[in-house]
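We now fix the convention by which a protein and its fold are recorded. The integers have meaning only within a learned vocabulary of local backbone shapes. A complete example follows; check for yourself that the lines match position by position.
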Amino acid sequence: MKNKLILGLAVLGIMSISNSSAQNGLEGVVVEKYYVSDAADSTDASDNGAVYPLNVGSVTYRVYANLLPGYKVIQMYGSPTHPLNISTTTSFYNDPNYGVSVYSGTSVNNTKKNTMLIDSYLTIGSVANGLVGVLKEEDTDGTIGNNQGILANNDISAGAPITGASGQDGLMPGTTNSLNLLGITDELALFDQTPGSVFEVSNATIAALGGVEGATASNHVLLGQFTTDGTFSFKLNLQLSTPTAGGSEIYVAENPTGDELLDSTLIYTSESIVDTTDTTTNAVQNLSKLIEFRIYPNPAAQEINILSAQNAGTAILLEVLDVVGNVVISEKMDNRIQKIAVQDLPAGVYVVRMKQGNEIRSQRFVKS
């Protein structure tokens, strides 16, 4: 008997059902540093009446589910045992005139206005009418541009610019879907010009009936975009459909029960927003205590730098793991800044794990 796909959570009496014989379809959650705001962006936001300012240096993060071929995202959800949490240490930024808190059919023309392209919002795949989100490095059709001539910062830490002649805005043609929200009311306000730091629901779902696949062969499905000048974090739970008719898989960030599948990449905390070229004691002390190290550049083609909040020579082991958990690089951390050559690794998503005694911290990076 094939597994039955049930949409919703406690709101609709969801059951955690999965096809235990199927290959796990979630290869991991990928966080892309999409854009870093500059003074022109900040001025435009202020001139248009932003309640929470777009401070210079604010980072726009994109969150993707990386799926095997044929798998689709059905929903993100929060339940009493697995809350859905998206947070920042400050507030989220949203365009004061055209911003939306969840995708609902935004026109391409409005997406090109003011700071709309770096809005904070939830989605499953869709960004603008007829356009879906893709990793910038996979964007092959350039950029839609910006009507006001802003969003032009070319901060190299965010990869390619999102406007201009060499721009890659991470948008490509695709089928867009309106979302079904159940159990969510005022919680979305902090993504729409309402100061606030924590979006959390424990009996709700953001769903796309029929499921959504990525627009490129890598099958990355955009789950949301978030702009903040603070430290960004999340705990997500996902339901996927499988290539087998009626098949379903449930992935949780922690404490799985029954047929629920645990995926550690569903938990994320960004680095603090500091100057990566500043390696002084003050800069190191500013690192997020939840992270204790940072990776740059990210994505990286040749080598990554590990900046540690710990003293060198204190029995710290660095490991690089591939998406299935195989250790592909292992070395002792000899310096507060450690270089790791990654040029021989295949392109893809990796995890850097820092181990010191019983303490373990990990972060992801993209090998380009």
Summary: The longest helix spans residues 39-47. Residues 281-367 form a domain with the Immunoglobulin-like fold (CATH 2.60.40.3080). The helical segments are 39-47, 108-111, 281-285. The chain is about 5% helix and 35% strand.
